[in-house]
Amino acid sequence: MPSTHHVNLSYLGLLPFLTLTGGYFFSEAPWILQAFVIYSVSILSFVAGSLWQAPLNIQTKQGKNHQQNNANSLDESIARSQSVTQAWLVVLVTLPLPLGVFVSIEFSLLWLAGSFVWLLLLQKRLPNWALLSKEYQQMRAKITSVVLVCHLLMWAQLSHLGAVA
């Protein structure tokens, strides 16, 4: 699939965030908030999983080189180590998600918002970030910004409802 299709699909992925955020301001129905959190967790998990591609590619490449009796260079070893470390940092963000049932929804919204930003910052540190098109890099930053704002708006609305009640 050409990169423009990936970019278009990524922007379409914002529609549920925007629709649910707008809908919650109009109706404040609990199911909208629940749907927002479920969609957010799903997308966060998807984005986190996609970041494992770089370390797995490096590991596969090194495995092939090793099978061909080629010595791994120090640079490849360092790149692999950094990529694997960053991939595990992705897990640290998503690992506590099931525990969200034990904390307030306000905390969950803030955790999710921070997690999207965390994943973008980690992705920018991956060795393959520079290989990605400028269009993709800009799209990724824009989408993360919109998702962050949606989470903060949901949190603000929820906090306002709590203060009013």
From TrEMBL:
Keywords tagged on the record: Membrane, Transmembrane, Transmembrane helix
The organism's place on the tree of life at top rank: Bacteria
Segments traversing the membrane: 7-26, 32-56
Any Pfam family the entry gives: DUF3429
Protein's name in the database: DUF3429 domain-containing protein
Organism of this sequence: Pseudoalteromonas tunicata D2
